[in-house]
Design goal:
Two copies of one chain form a homodimer.
Chain A (H helix, E strand, L loop, with lengths): L8 H20 L4 E3 L6 H6 L14 E2 L2 E2 L10 H11 L6 E3 L4 H14 L16 E6 L3 H9 L3 E8 L2 E2 L1 H7 L5 E6 L13 H8 L9 E5 L17 H7 L6 E6 L11 E4 L2 H11 L8 H11 L2 H30 L5 E3 L8 E5 L4 H10 L2 E3 L16 E4 L6 H23 L2
Helix pairs in contact in A: 1-13, 4-5, 7-8, 11-13, 12-13
Chain lengths: ~425, ~425
């Protein structure tokens, strides 16, 4: 098969007709397959079933003299802080351990900035004329939504192979209305890019005009390799401190894709001054988070080495799924020169760039054939992909057999929409 | 012993000198006793240990076809909604089941009103010139703090034997700046008052000038009798709906004092229209709450009747503690005519009104002797009791032996501060 662009119109028409038959075949099977969200699959959930057997003995209820079953310790169980600190390579006192969702902690950070202001804010962000926010894209739709919810002006920063385009970021932060940026620094959502050391250092050295400029460092996939060994990653907190900006960053993480999605434990990490400010702002809202679940996780995960062993087991489930997706793209799409994609070694997504102007059409065709994808455009601010080309695939949920069907249909729909674009 | 006010100054001086010796004795023992917060005691926590043994079998992970271990169902597990609906006597579809804390849900409701507005808000409350809020007092300090945090003007409404002074409430809501009221309608915090049917009906019939006037109905102690049988309680949602105000109320509840404080499950209940509006506002913040813990509670509590059986066991632990406190007050303080108090049959507190101008002094003396109480003034808006007389006792945490010491010291300090006030 040669690249579609090199085909004559007749060749394309013949190809289109043949693929249409295939498409009708798939459609007639009435499938319902889902590659929309980064949901772990059942095998991954079963992997951690032992977590339910913990907390049986009275001594399990007590951690460092604290009865985890009662109110108290708003900033989290010290043992849980220590666990996250080891994983993130920061200090236990820099860690605030929260509830079941890091998204909630991110929302709270922005919400507090909006209603009351962060540590160095001249005024609450809700009292500013304009708040602008940098959104590396393709990126995570739920990040963008939070800042959209509060009416910020979202500014797209293109992603590169080494992270966000730092020339643009350094230029943008000269505007005092620019208050922050979303980052997924390791296995970025959806590109799977690991920010380079140079990128990270440039983040730490940012000289933002806004005194309360904030890097929202969502280290969601900090230990989520599915191919190869654990990749060490710099501690952004100490880099920012070394650069003289200790309060410029909030880091986030959770066990949602380590233990149980929506029933794990989340945290944020920040400077001592930010911790004091933020716990003050959280005091009217929270007596304490679920320390029983924090303790359950401390007992289950134990330490970083033991957690990385568990991640190897997740990898053994995730690896084949990503291979299925990448192999299909390689075999079906690469020769046609109608799309490009990243080959991540961790995280939860494969980011596909289709031929410009065909992402939405591909999404529609997939839906027609019973395959649910993340909405085309979702990886850009306001859900609008200016080139209508990025599609995020989430291979984690379906079993491999289903995934193979889903990716076959996706490839087919990519082809159909490319042919339609090129003319048939 | 006769009332202090009827004593001569010499008699009071002699009494004061004798009590001072007793005080020094207690002080020298270096005790550390706590009656400050409504924390369940260890015996209550041990009561529910079986909850940790659940969720062992694969079928336990699935509820109504939903794998509780994965993301999804933001408004809560249907089975958990049904459980709370039975307890609160409302409809399952009116219930949103959240995380470990109803305080968080209350905070979120006010926070969303502030940043975005409630269903009938002309604009976000943060854009209003002034927001006024009614605070029945004595009341719950954490309620008052939430509305203080957002800069509302707190207006004190005196509590009566039948609930808040409804004449004042009906008058106050004629002001369109008055946006809502805090209520703990059953076993009010701290008075232990059950709102009368007439009070509740007047709430449902309130004709507030503000279109978005909101009753924050914190039914925290809805099944928390420690003396006598379960007391049925009207469903405020249907009363408000019948009165033509379906969207005027949000009800809250949790299992913090049914299963585990800070590790239970919380909920709010509201009209269908409010549910749509509020889930929309929560979408950017939450993927889903901890459904594993929701399911754990469904399996453990089963239904209302079974839950009430558990509450009887809590009552058997709480009852003696309240008796110890009330007996001591009756024996030591009643004859002296220096304080009054309520005799609640449920809830978590005993509300003592000391001689005006002596609550802070009593609190200080208690602290000196090693007894921690809720801060004097805490039960009023801004932490300021205009008469400096209300003290909230929380007898639940200490074992009975310790509690007997704590209440003995409290009575002693009440006497000392009354004598100082009367002159010695």
């Amino acid at each position: 098969m040669k690249p579609y662009a090199q085909m004559t119109k007749e060749e394309r028409s013949a190809e289109y007709a043949a693929l249409q038959k295939e498409f009708q075949n798939w459609k007639s099977r009435g499938l319902s397959l889902n590659m929309a969200r980064g949901k772990p699959g059942k095998a991954q959930l079963d992997l951690v079933s032992d977590i339910f057997g913990l907390m049986q003995k009275p001594e399990d209820y007590v951690s460092g003299g604290i009865d985890v079953r009662n109110y108290g310790e708003m900033a989290g169980l010290p043992a849980a802080k220590a666990l996250f600190a080891e994983i993130l390579d920061c200090k236990p006192e820099q860690v605030f351990v929260g509830g079941n969702a890091s998204l909630q902690l991110m929302f709270d950070t922005i919400s507090k900035a909006y209603t009351h202001g962060l540590l160095h804010s001249p005024r609450p962000w809700g009292r500013e004329e304009t708040v602008k926010w940098l959104c590396p894209a393709p990126g995570y739709d739920r990040h963008f939504k939070i800042t959209e919810f509060f009416g910020f002006e979202l500014i797209t920063v293109p992603m590169t192979e080494t992270g966000p385009d730092m020339d643009l970021v350094e230029e943008a932060v000269k505007d005092p209305a620019v208050k922050g940026i979303w980052c997924v620094p390791k296995y970025s959502n959806p590109d799977g890019v690991i920010y380079s050391e140079d990128t990270i250092q440039r983040f730490a050295n940012l000289n933002a005009a806004a005194p309360d400029f904030t890097i929202m460092w969502d280290n969601a996939y900090c230990i989520h390799e599915f191919k190869g060994d654990y990749v060490p990653f710099p501690d952004i907190l100490s880099l920012c401190a070394d650069a003289g900006h200790p309060d410029m960053v909030f880091e986030f993480a959770s066990t949602s894709k380590v233990t149980l999605p929506g029933a794990g434990v989340s945290c944020f990490a920040c400077s001592a001054a930010n911790m004091t400010h933020m716990t003050g702002l959280l005091t009217p809202q929270v007596i304490s988070f679920d320390k029983v679940n924090q303790q359950r996780h401390v007992l289950y995960l134990q330490n970083k080495a033991h957690t990385l062993e568990l991640m190897k087991k997740h990898a053994s489930i995730m690896g084949p799924k990503f291979r299925a997706v990448l192999n299909a793209l390689e075999k079906e799409i690469a020769p046609l020169d109608i799309a490009s994609w990243k080959r991540p070694k961790g995280g939860y997504f494969v980011s596909v760039n289709a031929m410009p102007g065909t992402a939405k059409r591909t999404w529609e065709l997939c839906r027609e054939a019973g395959v649910t994808l993340t909405g085309a455009g979702a990886t850009f601010p306001y859900g609008k992909d200016p080139q209508d080309r990025n599609i995020r695939l989430a291979p984690s949920l379906p079993p491999v057999e289903e995934l193979e069907q889903a990716i076959a249909i996706f490839c087919l729909c990519l082809k159909l929409s490319a042919l339609e674009k090129l003319g048939v």
